[in-house]
């Protein structure tokens, strides 16, 4: 039995859909905070169980009888590590034979703002003794949905990544990798650095967006501090603006690309090209 935590989230839903193409629905558990949101899965035969990262008792119930668990990382800053520790403890106590975790690209070396919690979670998992796989996900192209909307409205967008390149691809590619790890063989103990085959820059993104929209789109590069101030002025909370500006710093430093080829190997096909990913964003 395979348990997917956060199964009604944007990544989790894609993973469950992918699993349903490979295993019977009765072998899949959607572990969610709000079971009502997973009613569609339940109607298709998926087991839906309540699981709250802040409620250890719910995790113990959700993991009962599980062979494999996918821990999709929490999105709650300041609480993420404690929540992950609760999941790992529950997985160990349930006798889970394989725990896969969605970490971040280069978790042990990157200086990205989000990295410390991921690095610490990986250490907790290693220390737990539960057989593991780390899926170190890169950037999702869907992270730029708001950027696309702004660019289509104004003809331009700004950032602070310079000509740095990132291996961003749609969530669907990362979800397909998780499905392979959960249903395939030979993945226990592996650490996968997951990113697109062909890294791209923000000027590349602007060109792809212009081609998809059929109108000019330009990119303006700003110093990091100025970029962060612009994000706050646009209405973003200070912590969010700081995180986005730090992501651009990471892109400029090459921290969001990888030449490992791990993602391509896991999904058994080339990763989604930038042009195709941008067309999906423009059409969404």
From TrEMBL:
It comes from the Bacteria. It comes from Amycolatopsis iheyensis. InterPro entries: NAD(P)-bd_dom, NAD(P)-bd_dom_sf, NmrA-type_oxidoreductase. CDD domains: TMR_SDR_a. This is SDR family oxidoreductase. It holds the Pfam family NAD_binding_10. Residues 6-183 form the NAD(P)-binding domain. PANTHER family: NMRA-LIKE DOMAIN-CONTAINING PROTEIN (PTHR47129:SF1), QUINONE OXIDOREDUCTASE 2 (PTHR47129).
